[in-house]
């Protein structure tokens, strides 16, 4: 399924049209200064990991600033950045940093893209609650997704085949997991996930499949993890402590699979876009981050 939701509280064009006509009439009609002002529209697209968070921000901000119309859609980090580069959105949500080639494409079109860290996140490795495995090293997770470990028995579990689940390739979470976990941070490693890895279009889809399949393993942003699945402790290397993903372990830099979440603009933000970004990074905006299970960043 395609995870694509929109929040839009814009002033209807027809109402605005008649308001302007009335304001231009003579006699006792309303003056132009009294006519309804058009809403400022901000288009925001990108990361599916961030879409619920971005929707919550938009809903609250529009209550405070009804003169601003915020449209929020998902589609994945790559989709959001492509839309930003093409000039069709004002803000791109990204669960990874822009790639050098994406930045160059933006500059080729006359833009100077600016990135802002708006939250932090842990990538939880999740399995079915029936699975007796409780902890894995990054090396073991890498071997699973490379197709080098194919049975839970090799990891202390039952004699069951491993079913690998991943987000689709346009997902920033997929890219981050591939580079940080599967390739273990080695920029020269060009390995891909095993060809029988099931690619799912949404974070909710990963949760549902792991919940229903006792052989499955997946990964998801901490804000999406529910009690229907089991989170495993992760060690950076053999002999290191196994750490559970949490706000505390991310802030302490002890959980090995944590990342920043971004909003990107085409240029240095000004006006309504700057005001919105400032609010997102304020104490009020970061309270929403914490409420949705993500990790707040230092407030402005």
Quick take:
This protein has 300 residues and is of the alpha/beta class. It is built from ten helices and eleven strands. Helix 3 (77-85) packs parallel to helix 4.
Please identify the oligomeric state: single chain
Straight-line N-to-C gap: 37 Å
The gross shape turns out to be globular
Q: Can you tell me the CATH topology of the largest domain?
A: D-Maltodextrin-Binding Protein, domain 2
Q: Structural class of the secondary elements?
A: alpha/beta
**Radius of gyration over alpha carbons?**
22 Å
The CATH H-level superfamily of the largest domain is: Periplasmic binding protein-like II
Amount of helix: 25-40%
Describe this structure in words.
The structure is a single chain. The strands form two sheets. Strands 1, 2, 3, 4, 6, 7, 8, 9 and 11 form a nine-stranded mixed β-sheet that branches. A two-stranded parallel sheet has the order 5-10. It is globular. It contains ten helices and eleven strands. The longest helix has 14 residues, at 51-64. The model is unreliable at 1-38 (pLDDT under 50). It is of the alpha/beta class and 300 residues long. The chain folds into two domains: 13-120 and 262-291, 3-Layer(aba) Sandwich (D-Maltodextrin-Binding Protein, domain 2); 121-258, D-Maltodextrin-Binding Protein, domain 2, CATH 3.40.190.10.
